[in-house]
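Weekly sync, protein design subgroup
Attendees: M.S., D.O., the rotation student, P.L. (late)

Item 1: inverse folding check
M.S. brought a backbone from last month's batch and wanted to see whether the design step gives back something sensible before we order anything. D.O. pointed out we never logged the input encoding, so this time it goes straight into the notes. Structure tokens as presented (543 positions):
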């Protein structure tokens, strides 16, 4: 799951968001049903049907992409491509290229996405009687196929329609709206050419894309018309076996409609559309959609000066997001609710206290979640991502206002692991930045332990003060061997010496002989470190 992304209205990339959830699932199985009918290069020998393993690879890839694991998705799609190439299943090959292209598009790698989709087109052209002379990125909906077979034709049109839709989405991202419309229109013509199943299933997505395209061009009326058409298409399937998927997509179209009215400051109409979306997402048990719908309702009510309802919707959105582990989104909602409670006429001390308590718990959950995900990436060997997540976890722990002992146990261990990984696996410039951040934090921790010790002395508690001085010593001593800069190492030794001397002094005052013996060992270790430093400082003169 992508916890870092912000809320966004589902209007600007409607079709791209739905490609995996609906369009791919629609043609995946069909592609393999048709695979056994495909013709080999000479057009006479049936091609073997791909194994269940190949189908599973595609489904695994789609599932991984849906949950944000693009690395796993790419591995599955590439294995599927190799397997389909091995049995000369051209529908399977084209399908794999489409999936890889969509994965690249989702990552914002537009040129790579178009490269994969163009490869899919080249494979699909092999089904035509006369592919020569066709425009490079066009597949005619009235194309004659190498073999007169309605099922084969339907499979061809499903895949060709998917390619045209995805290319239209890429052109729209590049703000090439005329080209985008050409591709979307071509995609619609392919779905209209399907004879053995209702084309409305796929057309609903394309029409929604045309709505987003119209809006991008400033044609709000055209956008509204197309989003409403898309909803009408989806409603035809509300009693089918795929009803939930169509309700989810219709809800997305309602959100897009609501956003148009919201931008025009017509909050009553926007709220009505967001409520329609919420009802459909609830029927489909689409928790992520429900959370987003509640958030948009909260924002609309806030702008409509209905603070009580806005607080209620933000709080509900927070609960749903926590349920589906969208913790950063949950924090956005909770922060909005807390701000409204403070700033508006709504005076509810009990609610304010509850929200404050939930805010603290959620902040800790976010920090822990970043750390857990960092650990998974660390174990998987994805060290760049592990370091990024460890640093996010570190920053989150720092923001919790914990006691220094607990903070250092959490944040300190996290930044230490990030620094350790960086030293081995990351480029020098990144390594240097993380090391500086780590060193600055350890300096801060040592100073906090010294402050803590002085506070205990003021309370006439020498035992706890001694422990705090010893903690400050341990922080500095642990860094000595890791520091390559000799002047910095010398400063660390000096700081550690001061803390150790204070700890020894307090132990003597208390007559704690076991502790004094232990501190004598530390004194010897520190002396060894100082002697080794001196030897390194003198070494250049010897040479």
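Designed sequence read out in the meeting:
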């Amino acid at each position: 799951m992508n916890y870092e992304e912000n809320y966004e209205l589902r209007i600007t990339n409607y079709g791209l968001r739905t490609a995996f959830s609906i369009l791919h699932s629609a043609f995946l199985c069909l592609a393999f049903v048709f695979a056994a009918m495909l013709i080999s290069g000479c057009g006479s020998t049936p091609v073997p049907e791909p194994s269940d393993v190949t189908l599973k690879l595609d489904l695994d890839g789609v599932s991984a992409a849906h949950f944000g694991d693009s690395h796993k998705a790419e591995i599955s799609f590439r294995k599927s491509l190799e397997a389909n190439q091995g049995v000369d299943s051209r529908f399977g090959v084209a399908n794999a290229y489409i999936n890889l292209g969509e994965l690249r598009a989702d990552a914002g790698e537009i040129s790579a996405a178009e490269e994969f989709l163009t490869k899919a087109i080249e494979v699909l052209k092999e089904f035509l009687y006369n592919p020569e002379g066709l425009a490079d990125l066009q597949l005619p909906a009235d194309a004659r196929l190498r073999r007169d077979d309605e099922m084969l034709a339907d499979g061809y049109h499903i895949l060709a329609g998917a390619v045209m839709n995805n290319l239209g989405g890429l052109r729209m991202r590049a703000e090439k709206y005329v080209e985008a419309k050409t591709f979307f229109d071509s995609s619609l013509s392919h779905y209209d050419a399907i004879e053995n199943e209702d084309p409305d299933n796929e057309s609903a997505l394309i029409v929604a894309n045309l709505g987003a395209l119209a809006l991008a061009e400033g044609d709000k009326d055209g956008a509204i018309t197309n989003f409403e058409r898309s909803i009408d298409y989806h409603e035809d399937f509300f009693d089918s076996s795929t009803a939930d998927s169509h309700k989810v997509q219709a809800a997305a179209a309602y959100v897009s409609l609501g956003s148009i009215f919201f931008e025009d400051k017509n909050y009553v109409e926007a709220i009505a559309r967001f409520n329609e979306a919420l009802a459909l997402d609830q029927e489909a048990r689409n928790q992520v959609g429900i959370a987003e719908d509640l958030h948009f309702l909260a924002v609309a009510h806030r702008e409509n000066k209905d603070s009580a309802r806005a607080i209620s919707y933000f709080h509900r959105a927070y609960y749903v997001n926590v349920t589906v582990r969208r913790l950063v989104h949950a924090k956005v909602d909770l922060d909005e609710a807390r701000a409204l409670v403070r700033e508006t006429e709504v005076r509810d001390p009990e609610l304010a206290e509850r929200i404050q308590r939930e805010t603290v718990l959620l902040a800790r959950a976010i920090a822990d979640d970043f750390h857990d995900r960092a650990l998974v990436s660390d174990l998987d060997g994805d060290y760049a991502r592990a370091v990024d997540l460890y640093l996010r976890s570190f920053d989150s722990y720092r923001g919790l206002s914990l006691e220094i002992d607990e903070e250092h146990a959490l944040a300190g261990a996290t930044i230490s692991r990030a620094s350790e990984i960086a030293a081995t696996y990351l480029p020098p410039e990144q390594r240097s930045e993380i090391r500086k951040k780590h060193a600055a934090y350890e300096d801060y921790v040592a100073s906090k332990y010294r402050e803590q010790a002085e506070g205990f002395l003021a309370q006439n508690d020498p035992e706890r003060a001694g422990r705090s001085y010893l903690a400050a010593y341990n922080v500095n001593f642990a860094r000595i061997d890791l520091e390559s800069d000799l002047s910095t190492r010398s400063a660390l030794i000096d700081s550690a010496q001061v803390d150790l001397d204070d700890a020894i002094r307090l132990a003597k005052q208390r007559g704690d002989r076991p502790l004094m013996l232990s501190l004598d060992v530390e004194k010897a270790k520190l002396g060894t470190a100082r002697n080794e430093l001196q030897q390194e400082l003198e070494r250049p003169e010897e040479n």
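Discussion: The longest helix spans residues 349-380. Residues 1-5, 9-50 have pLDDT under 50 and may be disordered.
Action: P.L. to compare against the previous round before Friday.
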